[in-house]
Here is the input.
Amino acid sequence: MAQTSSHALADTTVIDTDVHITVEEETIAEYLDEPYRSSILDSPHPVFPSSSWDQRMGGKIDDHFSTFTGPADIRQFQSDFNIDYPIINTFEPLGKFSQPDLAMSLMRAYNDLLMDRFLDDYDFLGLAAVATQKPAEAAEEIDRMGDEDQIVGIYLGTSGEYPPLGDPSNDPIYKAAEDNGLPVVFHGNGDEFMFDFPHHNKGFNNYFEVQTLGHPWQQMATMSSLIGEGVPAKFPDLDFVFLEAGIGWVPYMMHRMNKIYRMRRSEVPLLEKSPEEYVRDQFYIGSQPLGEPNGAEDMKRMIETLGADLLMFATDYPHWDFDHLEELDKYLQHYFSEEERQKILYETPVEAFNLDL
Here is the structure.
């Protein structure tokens, strides 16, 4: 049903499922134990690994959007962009760290910082960072953070993670998340996929090629791994959220996995229903970065294919390529009912993150 009347954004309750805080190396070092604190503070150059791609296009892209360091920044963002409930994450993809003990220390440090600086004295919502290098320790951290009322999910980067995230070695993480009633949030990343998995950095000549593929490629690999290893079947009360890959890859994956499932069902004995049914029952998808089809009807059909029960709004703020609410809402207001619009902007994330608002 097409929606013909206009709706003021200021009168709409909106949950943003992907808001990043900016944490400089020297800041997170304050929350680390030795020897890692000194190894960061005493280093004359950045310690955290990164790619060599020119993401800022030789300075053409203003870097100021990437600084989002305190609660006042969050409040200003809410005011400027009509966001009622931002769900905050610390962003750093911990899978890129080759030292397991460092990764686990950073995991705890980021969570301590999130609570200390953003959640303890404010009414924001947050995601607990999780590193997979030591799944048993990660499960303990999920149990620790699960006691915090404002923690509404766990956060995993999908690049640099090896083995793939559906591997049974990660089951303690998923069990802890399920036991604590926390959905697992998978987030794509723009420059860390020079690492082991998924490896697709060699041979490309420019960042156009890399940025086009990076986020959806990681998420496709992760979804395939989760379904292929039967993770949603093993943890039927656990929900999964995919952020920062847009939405166009999801219909393809549901239909592609259905086809392969019907050909190779014996290879996935844990599955009791089609891959698409698992996705529709236990998975949620963030909207950002929304694609830009030449024809608006193409986006309408894509949103219809996903449905309001799967789709949630996300900005990816304060990254320079974030999506303004109006980028999604122009389609919702023009093509969809107010009930569907409200589900996508508010009710579906309430369900996905078990929110009591």
Summary: The chain has one domain: 9-32+71-352. The radius of gyration is 20 Å.
